[in-house]
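INTERNAL AUDIT FORM
Audit reference: QA-55
Scope: verify that the stored structure record matches its stored sequence.
Auditor: D.O.
Record contents follow.
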Amino acid sequence: MSTAVVDEGAYIQHHLENLQLNLHNLTLGSGGFWTLNIDTFFLSLFCGALFIGIFHKVAKSMSITRPGKLQIAIELGVEAVQKLVKETFHGKNNLIAPLALTIFVWVFLLNALDFLPVDFLPIIASWFGVHYFRSVPTDDPNLTFALSLSVFALIIFYNIKVKGKYLIKEIFCAPFGVWLFPLNFVFRMIEELVKPLSLSLRLFGNMFAGELIFLLIALMPWWIGWTVGSMWAIFHILIIAIQAFIFMMLTIIYISMAHESSH
């Protein structure tokens, strides 16, 4: 194997390593299950704070007579999400529209970090003695599963809250009737468990593939990399927005299903 191939493989592997904290002894490095990916954690907090800060600033300086461009853009986004929820969500719940907006904007900002040059944040981190740093939090399955499990918790909560005792009947009697209750139960468990899996793996898979492509482009000569990279970045804008939109839509649909009855 040539040195160039080894170097290229090491370059990609290096960029796929998280900055980790062992929670057992609070030292850097993997500690098995009790390991915190610090880069994912802090970039997620940064994007969340950025989202809250921008919306808070616009809300605080809102003007009816002379709205700014950012205010108009946010108002259009809020109205679009409210209309989408009204058309998709079959129930009464004031939480759904704010939740959908939060999911879309936050996931979009997390995905948008993929537009930074692949070496930008790792180089800055290296100035402070940090040798591993991943720039895109949604490339980390720990984050995507955390997001999906949070939605899954809401699904379970609203299933119990809205359906009450009827939920037990629904689990054991639908769709094949009470005499096939073991089969009904298995099918229901599969149906519910697929929901967080579909949310997390779809987002992770698409963003991870995008990161790998950017890493491969970074290994090309600069005159090819800039051309191919620019075209891929333009196409990647659609991927980033679509993945945030899909995550939001599936959340609305799944919680809407929790408000409905198969009776």
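Auditor finding: record pair retrieved intact. DSSP finds nine helices and three strands in the chain.
Action required: none
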